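Hi R.,

Here's the chain you asked about this morning:
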Amino acid sequence: MDTLIIPQSLVPELLPMAECIDVMAEALLALAKGDAVLPLRSMVWMPDQSGLLGLMPAYLGAPRSLGLKVISYLPGNHGGDRDSHQGAVLLFDTATGGLLAMIDASSITAIRTAAVSGLATRLLAREDAGDLALLGSGVQASTHLEAMRAVRKLRRVRVCSLSLPRAQAFARHHEKTLGLPIEAVATAKEAVLGADLICTTTPSREPVLFGDWIAAGAHINAVGACFAAARELDTAAVVRSRLYVDRRESALAEAGDFLLPKTEGAIGDDHIVGEIGEILAGRVPARRSPREITLFKSLGIAIEDLAAAHRIHEHARVLGKGIAVDFGGRRVAHD
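And the predicted structure, written out as tokens:
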């Protein structure tokens, strides 16, 4: 059996954003129904703390798949020509154990992270939401812009970054490619005031979004901070919001946006309303009123990568895409 090698350039073609949002819904619903095996990720930090290697294995029952993502994270790459997240998603045959595919993880991570935010927005944001604030101007800001456009009609977009020139470059590029007016602003506060959709996609370890900036009725997708000691939202922002997560166990162990306010005594575990999959399963309510603030805290979990890889592999086989190699695994006969 051949193994398909699927490079970064092919992934967006094989995993369109709108389709990926539906794929994520299927995977998170399977998780909510108990049809997944998902250990917490393990991480190996380099001694100087400049980067890490993360391992994220999983089994998913629908669609039936087995695999893992192995990825390096080097935050020093932010703003350069290399993504901060690089690696591969390995997809295995559940019947034979053979390696079906090796797929670029940077592009899967970029698309599936934003797709889950798109799903959360579809479930939690007001139907008339369309004033978008993007905090950050990197890869995730780009894919989140695409995901927000897939689920809501945007009437206004503001973006801020570490530097105004970087935000301006982002705005020029996406205005040209999407035909959508985008305003680059100098501060996060300028971007957020009056917004009803907010996406925080920064590498910051300290808050960039503050509770007294957030308009009533806003929905927030917080995706940048992925460690227990890092957060993008201050305590007031979390306290004011109804909090949803991709997976409760992961949030309780790793989500600094939740754990730091909890350590301060501002909230308890019951501040987590539920998982996105539990909304889909009908076990927890979504938005209850036009004025409440909803918050989706995303950590990114392995079943999302696995479901994305499964769909990419399906499309690649049908379309004849990717590079087929004999990666071994066959027993060698001896005379």
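The mean pLDDT is 94.

Let me know if you need anything else.
M.
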